[in-house]
Amino acid sequence: MTDSVESRLAARDIVLPEAAAPAANYLPYVISGSLLFISGQLPMENGALYATGLLGRDVDVAKGQRAAELCAINILAQAKAALGGDLERIVRVVKLGGFVASEPTFTEQHLVINGASNLIAEILGDAGKHARAAVGTASLPLNAAVEVDAVIEIR
User: Fold this and answer.
1) Structural element, H or E, at residue 124
2) Over 60: is that where the pLDDT of 1 sits?
3) Check: CATH 3.30.1330.40 for 5-15+26-154?
4) Per-residue DSSP letters for 78-108?
5) Interior CA angle at 95 toward 94 and 98, to 5°?
6) Are 26 and 38 in contact (CB under 8 A)?
7) How many CB atoms lie within 10 A of CB 110?
8) Quick one: which of 80, 78, 82, 98 has its CA closest to 20?
9) Residue 125 burial (C-beta neighbours within 10 Å; 0-12, 13-18, 19+)
10) Would you give the DSSP letter of residue 5?
11) DSSP class of residue 127?
């Protein structure tokens, strides 16, 4: 594995976007002690939602996985902003919470959220191995198909 988070991002041709500003009365991240809590991130790409609607009706699993991956990229962007640009301060991703807007009969939320889990593990190595939840929901803000939040241990 390459030796830095930034070099692993570059190897995947990932350029982190500017961290998104909150859309309501909340903070995009909060640091409490050695924990960084990152608010739910939507699958934004180039300023627009990548996937909208419900998994199992409007969005297939592959597109949902890419949406979850974009959520993870946006989590890393928020972490970079919170840590003054230094992603090497990440000790471990403790937990990802994945929310998948789904039809009632859709049961592959875990496969969708693998998009976020796989990217985080690839970019952060052992520090990216995390606990997680993959939850189906009736809808998400802005009709997003996926939303992911994170708890990260930092130094």
Assistant:
1) helix 109-124
2) no
3) yes
4) HHHHHTTT-GGGEEEEEEEEEEEEB-TT---
5) 165
6) no
7) 15
8) 78
9) middle
10) H
11) G
* pLDDT tens per residue, range 86-133: 999 999 999 999 999 999 999 999 999 999 999 999 999 999 999 999
Domain boundaries, the chain: 5-15+26-154
| C-alpha span between 58 and 133 (Å, rounded) | 22
Answer whether 104's CB lies under 8 Å from 58's CB.
no
Tokens representing 141 are 């803000």
pLDDT in tens, 59-94: 999 999 999 999 999 999 999 999 999 999 999 999
Side chain identity at residue 41, one-letter code: Q
Q: Which amino acid is present at 137?
A: T
Structure tokens at 80: 């970079």
Q: What is the pLDDT of residues 132-153, one digit of tens each?
A: 999 999 999 999 999 999 999 9
The C-alpha atoms of residue 80 and residue 99 are separated, in whole angstroms, by 23
Give the position of tokens 């929310």: 99
Contact assessment for residue 96 and residue 149, using Cβ atoms and an 8 Å cutoff: yes
Rounded to whole angstroms, the Cα distance separating 107 from 134 reads 10
